[in-house]
Amino acid sequence: MRMRALLSTVGLILVVLTADVLAATEVRSVRLWRAPDNTRLVFDLSGPVQHSVFTLTAPNRLVIDVSGAQLATRLDQLSLSNTPITAIRSAQRTPTDLRLVLDLSAMVSPKSFTLAPNQQYGNRLVVDLFDDVSAAVNSTTTAAAGSAQSGTPTPPVVAPVTPPPSVPATATKLPPVPGGKRDIVIAIDAGHGGEDPGALGPNRSVFEKNVTLAIARELQRQINAEKGFRGELVRTGDYFIPLRKRTEIARKKGADLFISIHADAAPRSSAFGASVFALSERGATSETARWLADSENQSDLIGGAGNVSLDDKDRMLAGVLLDLSMTASLSSSLNVGQKVLSHMGSITPLHKRRVEQAGFMVLKSPDIPSILVETGFISNPNEAKKLASSSHQQALARSITTGVRQFFHQNPPPGTYIASQRDAGRIAPGPREHVVTPGESLALIAQRYQVGLAALRSVNSLKTDTIKVGQVLSIPATALAAQP
Ligand SMILES: [Zn+2]
What is residue 73's three-state secondary structure? Predict the structure, then answer.
């Protein structure tokens, strides 16, 4: 009898506890990252939530309503410097409905979404505040979209009264350099950033995101010191950029080459060595399909931001052209990758001696040759220490710069300073090269470089037209091209 009473009491307590847990998800911590054009707030949650986001003006505010949630952290410890946020306030509207109000110094365009748990984090609510003030007029749409998720009624959104202070210029095309001798542009992408630390060194001593940014900055410095070259950083600080956005930034900067810098991690702490990756053919093929399917990306290409102009071609032809363009840049990727890898081999052990190929999303840019450099294993205590040292970072950057210079001296894009130097005979880097990719024939390669088939055969001492995937072919100079 006593036992039954006790059990039912325990049962009652359990019911109460469960109800309490179900009722309120805890907002356990808040993290903030500042990027050049946006501010990201990440709320770490004890479970999933419904939410809505809307803006108010006079004064400018952003309201985040989180239903079924309670605040279980402090908001006054966030560093708000360089952000449009001047203060964050909270109010518990009901025991389970949390309202967060951000006081803003300038109108922002908000975007919000929730994320399911992954290996590193639990449930999260992400709120991005985009600085682009011209987009503020669209805040009604954003607010409506946000509240649609939660099902709560949308409070009235007051349209911004004050005109935006300044509309940032969106330069998508670089001004031509007088004489048509532009710089060769190298987009340098420091992997990870912000809430994505990447691989972690032993005892979280070294973060991949910091190592990659340090190497990227050094690489930019060295590339800028080379006449005829310009390095552009894709990520300039400690913030997250989605993979797709990274190649988009590179394209906007007019990149001739995209280099993504990373440091590996492996379950075995003894794993070591650097490696260089290019996109796999399989990835290339399916990505062509994806590019065609994705109307936004396609319009980006059609808009002339890339080197491929498709506006006057029909869809079928567009597919073929994109495929060709992708294969051509893959060959260049393998070529430059191999040069970078061999120079790296003289300053650090290599994990693999050949350029590896994988379906990395960050490499899937059809018109820009792209490589991903794994500078070493951050999970290896020895390499982690080296990777964190500025002398080793400099040496790594030096070997990458040397490989890049060598590749572009052999294959200068037309209209560049390097091409003009080469044409004037001031640099003699040897013949252009082509790395054979699957499905290519000697005739196709001759056609692509507009050189005679006989000249191509003779320069490479080929007795037959049989070529192998991965084979490096010399491409004869244009003077020979006239020969049939
Ligand atoms: Zn990485």
Answer: coil
* Across 56-70, 312-326, 341-355, 462-476, least confident range: 312-326
Task: Quote the ligand 1 centre to 165 CA distance (angstroms).
Answer: 38
Helices (H) and strands (E) in the chain, counts: 13, 17
Tokens matching residue 105: 């110094």
**356 alpha carbon – ligand 1 mean position (Å):** 15
Encoded tokens for 374 = 């794994």
Neighbours of 383 (CB within 10 A): 25
Q: Is the pLDDT of residue 435 over 90?
A: no
Look at 149 and 307; give whichever has higher pLDDT.
307
CA of 375 to the centre of ligand 1 (A): 10
Contact 174, 219 (CB under 8 A): no
Q: What is the pLDDT of residue 316?
A: 61
Tokens of 64: 């985040």
Ligand 1 centre and the CA of 120: distance in Å?
Answer: 15
Sketch out the chain's domains with CATH numbers: 21-150 (2.60.40.3500), 180-410 (3.40.630.40), 431-481 (3.10.350.10)
What is the pTM assigned to this prediction? 0.67
Counting every residue, how long is the chain?
Answer: 484
Taking residues 6-17, report their average pLDDT.
50
Q: Please say if the pLDDT value at position 221 is more than 90.
A: yes
Cis peptide bond N-terminal to 59, omega within 30: yes
Q: What angle do CA 201, 202, 208 make, to 5 degrees?
A: 5
CA atoms within 13 A on the CB side of 77: 5
CA 43 to centroid of ligand 1, rounded, Å = 24
CA of 272 to the centre of ligand 1 (A): 15
Q: What is the CA radius of gyration of the chain?
A: 27
pLDDT one-digit tens code per residue, 367-404 = 899 999 999 999 899 999 999 999 999 999 999 999 99
Contact (CB, 8 A) for 427 and 409? yes
Residue whose pair of structure tokens reads 């990201």 in the numeric block:
40
Sole residue written with tokens 């590996």: 264
- pLDDT tens-digit series, residues 282-336: 655 555 556 555 544 544 444 433 444 444 445 566 666 667 677 778 889 999 9
195 CA to centre of ligand 1 in angstroms: 13
Its sign, for the CA torsion 192, 174, 82, 97, is: negative
